Amino acid sequence: MSKRSAAETDHDAQALKSGQRPEQEQNGGDIPEFEDEFEDEFESEDEIFEAGVDGRPDAEREAEEQEAMDLDQATFIPGRTALGAGESLAPDLSTYEMLHTLEAPWPCLSCDVLRDHFGDNRKTYPATVYSVAGTQAARGREKENQIMVMKMSGLGRMEKEGSDSEDEDEDEDENSDPILETRTIPLATCTNRIRAHQAPQATAARPGTTLTAAMTESGDVLIHDVTPHLSSFDTPGTVISIQQDKPVSTIRAHKKVEGYALDWSPLVPTGKLLTGDSDGKIFATMRTEGGGFVTDTNPFTGHQGSVEEIQWSPSEKNVFASASSDGTVKIWDARSKSRKPAVSVQVSKHDVNVLSWSKLTTHLLASGADDGEWAVWDLRQWKPSSQGASVATKQNAVASFNFHKEQITSVEWHPTDDSIVSVAAGDNTVSLWDLSTEIDDEESKDTAGVNDYPPQLLFVHYMDQVKEVHWHPQIPGALMATGGSGFGYVTCVLAWRDLLANLPIASSRPSACKLILFGQSRSATTGSPAFRNQPILDRQRPVKTSVTQIRLDRHGRSSTFVVMYRRKSAPSKESRDDADGGFLLSS
């Protein structure tokens, strides 16, 4: 309600004629002599307002900065800490050597990286990656499923800040636009898992054969020869015939029982395949000299639950391992007439989802379970039970980690570094680990109040509903991950910067090289001079996207590392792109 009287309101409402000024009040409101009836249009010269670097007063900016610093003193842990309303994760791209994502109509549960003819140990850019993946279409639209054969070229490295003009031409080549080429093979069912086998080149005129095996939801295993699909990328005008899209063999031994486990033997060039199903049966399929496939209908049995994973030994062509929902890992001899396991070990109280057999240190086997724990086992310590090989024994793991709190969906040893392992989990993260890293008792005393970060943890990449991650066998440090939500399919190709390995220190992997904190911590503190691992605010970045830094003093050399993830208060429409990213210690 108005506080003025009706008379005053009516008086104010009267219209003024053109150019007429309102009359002054007579109750002492007369304009004194020599006083301008209008206010000065300019500020007094004695009143000076200083603005900060962003155009605002320093006091206002500092107040906002202080408020932001007081918001959250806790460490942000991806996969555990929930984002607040209006918050999203944004990656610091400087922690990546390379990061590219692609999207297709349907999500994929599985992918595999193919070897190519560009050579090993490649470190130049732009990079080229060949891969295969199988889709998972929505219920009722199964006929839209397909196997995707992909060539990703022009994969440039991340742009470097402050690069010299001399490197401009080189950077321009490295940062070329990525190109995706695909060849699709139609399927009428979802692919649970896909694995590729590349036979060596038979003659100079005849290239090597690339086969894919897809374990499908229908229970059939479809084997395709994708050699013509791959060749078509480098031969313009090539048309793939309908016949070439058809499977060269279909394994029906599982009798419509769904499964996820399959693996090609790395020691049988022509091709030998193992497949496992939800009934606990494992079948072996051999490729004949004529190019056909023969499946032994007598299965390997012994698991009391679903066979979730199979891994051939990288050094003995008749030995393989299997993991099951019964919590056991079993070692088998493929020559056994009884089709029973040689050794059985209870490795978890939960489902064992994945396995990886180290190709460099062949007595090490990694496993990942449904409770989020993954472990490394020394097979030299595994012995059969005195009650018989079918009875599971208990063994101690060489190393075990429960950092992830959701199911482990993928685990894989690095192809050229026998201490590095990649892990994907249901908490939407891909983590990289270095098992050669340790921390001594003196260093462990100063953890800034954070006690559950293993020193072996090197890097964490966030990816929505990630299902699998695989190392590229020819590009050091490069990985390919697949996952997705809803109708979106996202595959990420990334290469992390192993900056710790390049530091001029006495040992290649010192015990002080450890990741203490991730993500978001806005307290501005300093640590002890010997090992400063408390979070400090990075003043070079906007307050709303502050990061955590870790300072380490190794052998007299002080280094500052920035942990890449930070919270973003106002996600844009491209929040999906912002959501995929990682953590890394970067100098």
Automatic annotation (TrEMBL):
<keyword id="KW-0853">WD repeat</keyword>
<keyword id="KW-0677">Repeat</keyword>
<feature type="repeat" description="WD">
    <location>
        <begin position="300"/>
        <end position="342"/>
    </location>
</feature>
<feature type="compositionally biased region" description="Acidic residues">
    <location>
        <begin position="32"/>
        <end position="49"/>
    </location>
</feature>
<dbReference type="Pfam" id="PF00400">
    <property type="entry name" value="WD40"/>
</dbReference>
<dbReference type="GO" id="GO:0042254">
    <property type="term" value="P:ribosome biogenesis"/>
</dbReference>
<dbReference type="InterPro" id="IPR051972">
    <property type="entry name" value="Glutamate-rich_WD_repeat"/>
</dbReference>
<dbReference type="InterPro" id="IPR020472">
    <property type="entry name" value="WD40_PAC1"/>
</dbReference>
<feature type="repeat" description="WD">
    <location>
        <begin position="401"/>
        <end position="437"/>
    </location>
</feature>
<dbReference type="InterPro" id="IPR019775">
    <property type="entry name" value="WD40_repeat_CS"/>
</dbReference>
<dbReference type="Pfam" id="PF12265">
    <property type="entry name" value="CAF1C_H4-bd"/>
</dbReference>
<dbReference type="InterPro" id="IPR015943">
    <property type="entry name" value="WD40/YVTN_repeat-like_dom_sf"/>
</dbReference>
<dbReference type="InterPro" id="IPR001680">
    <property type="entry name" value="WD40_rpt"/>
</dbReference>
<dbReference type="InterPro" id="IPR036322">
    <property type="entry name" value="WD40_repeat_dom_sf"/>
</dbReference>
<dbReference type="GO" id="GO:0005730">
    <property type="term" value="C:nucleolus"/>
</dbReference>
<protein>
    <recommendedName>
        <fullName>Glutamate-rich WD repeat-containing protein 1</fullName>
    </recommendedName>
</protein>
<feature type="region of interest" description="Disordered">
    <location>
        <begin position="153"/>
        <end position="183"/>
    </location>
</feature>
<feature type="compositionally biased region" description="Acidic residues">
    <location>
        <begin position="164"/>
        <end position="176"/>
    </location>
</feature>
<feature type="compositionally biased region" description="Basic and acidic residues">
    <location>
        <begin position="1"/>
        <end position="24"/>
    </location>
</feature>
<keyword id="KW-0539">Nucleus</keyword>
<feature type="domain" description="Histone-binding protein RBBP4-like N-terminal">
    <location>
        <begin position="89"/>
        <end position="153"/>
    </location>
</feature>
<feature type="region of interest" description="Disordered">
    <location>
        <begin position="1"/>
        <end position="68"/>
    </location>
</feature>
<dbReference type="InterPro" id="IPR022052">
    <property type="entry name" value="Histone-bd_RBBP4-like_N"/>
</dbReference>
